Amino acid sequence: MLADVGRRSQRIVGVIDGLEAQFSLLPLEGEPSCRESLYPFDREAKVGRGEVIRYRPLGCPIVHFARVLSSSHGILNVHIIGPQRIIVGGGEEPRDIGMCMVAAFEGVLGRGRMPRVGQTVRFLPQHCMMGKVHSGVVVGIEGSRLRIEGIDLKVW
């Protein structure tokens, strides 16, 4: 999903919008995708660890499928697993929890320059099916591990 322009420049360009990202965000070692923190708008949706869910992020036209890692104070932490793991694998029937706000991403720096804590950034999550540049604020850095909150798909 990433388009490189020039060998040395290491430009990271979104496929759907042609916008340039400052860096790509990769999954933590041994994990299938970046971690996402979700806020379900359906406050009655009680979801347990290990459960497979289906939801649509606010502002995104694509339905997502994920496995729940944990739940705390109404926020779900998930790994995106994609429909192919459910359909092709003959896996579990996902539970539809409706629309969710993606509150945060957590992963490791891929290509690009390490940002600073507090910096508003444009980044491209490796697992984004649209190849869409996202924006947010870096709230934590540990080595090459980043936590970005205030996620938005509107990037100028």
How would you describe what is shown here?
The protein is mainly beta and 156 residues long. It has one domain. It is 4% helix and 49% strand. The strands form two sheets. Strands 3, 4, 5, 6, 7, 8, 9, 10 and 11 form a nine-stranded mixed sheet that branches. Strands 1-2 form a two-stranded antiparallel ribbon. β10 and β11 form a beta hairpin. Residues 1-8 have low confidence and may be disordered.
Highlighted features:
single chain, 156 residues, mainly beta, 9-stranded mixed sheet, two-stranded antiparallel ribbon, 1 helix, 11 strands, 4% helix, disordered N terminus
Calculate Rg over CA atoms. 15 Å
The SSE string, one letter per element, is EEEEEEEHEEEE
- Percent helix range: under 10%
What fraction of the residues are assigned to beta strands by DSSP?
Answer: over 45%
- The backbone outline, from C-alpha atoms, is globular
Provide mean pLDDT, rounded.
89
The tally of domains stands at 1
Instruction: Give the termini distance in whole angstroms.
Output: 20 Å
Question: In terms of structural class, how would the helical and strand content be classed?
Answer: mainly beta
Residue runs with pLDDT of under 50 for 5 or more positions: 1-8
Describe the biggest sheet?
9 strands, mixed
Counted beta strands = 11
What is the overall number of helices? 1
